[in-house]
Write a structure and sequence with these properties.
The protein is an alpha+beta fold. Helix content is about 35%, strand content about 30%. The chain has three helices and five strands, in the order H-H-E-E-H-E-E-E. It has helices at about 1-25, 35-40, 75-85; strands spanning about 45-55, 55-60, 95-100, 105-110, 115.
Length: about 120
């Protein structure tokens, strides 16, 4: 019984140290957004788009065109998707507004006449 309680205490201590270390990796520093290395280079785009064809407007879901399992949508990747959708004739133009989250903070993004700005 004594060995079991020592093992449990060691496991509990190791788990607490690991959780504490992981939490400090996700805390933000002044002027930074999520300092963990994966998030430092990632840019998340949250946007609402409308596609127009022959005067009719419908919502466009750009996340549908990402690779399976992918959820990161950078402005460059968004422009590629929009260019594909307008180039194939699916939409005459695409417009929308949203935000980009990155290590530099939150910024406004806009799509006007199928161009990401």
């Amino acid at each position: 019984m004594h060995a079991t309680s020592v093992l449990s205490a060691a496991q509990l201590a190791a788990t607490a140290i690991l959780v504490g270390w992981m939490l400090t990796g996700f805390t933000s520093l002044p002027g930074k957004w999520l300092r963990w290395k994966m998030f430092c280079r990632a840019r998340f785009t949250i946007i609402t788009l409308d596609g127009t064809t022959d005067g009719r407007t419908e919502p466009v879901n750009p996340y549908r065109y990402l690779s399976p399992g992918s959820f990161l949508l950078s402005p460059e990747r968004l422009q590629t998707i929009i260019t594909h959708l307008t180039g194939t004739g699916r939409y005459d133009r695409i417009d929308g507004r949203g935000r980009v989250l990155s290590a530099q903070g939150e910024q406004t993004i806009e799509v006007r006449n199928s161009v990401v700005r």
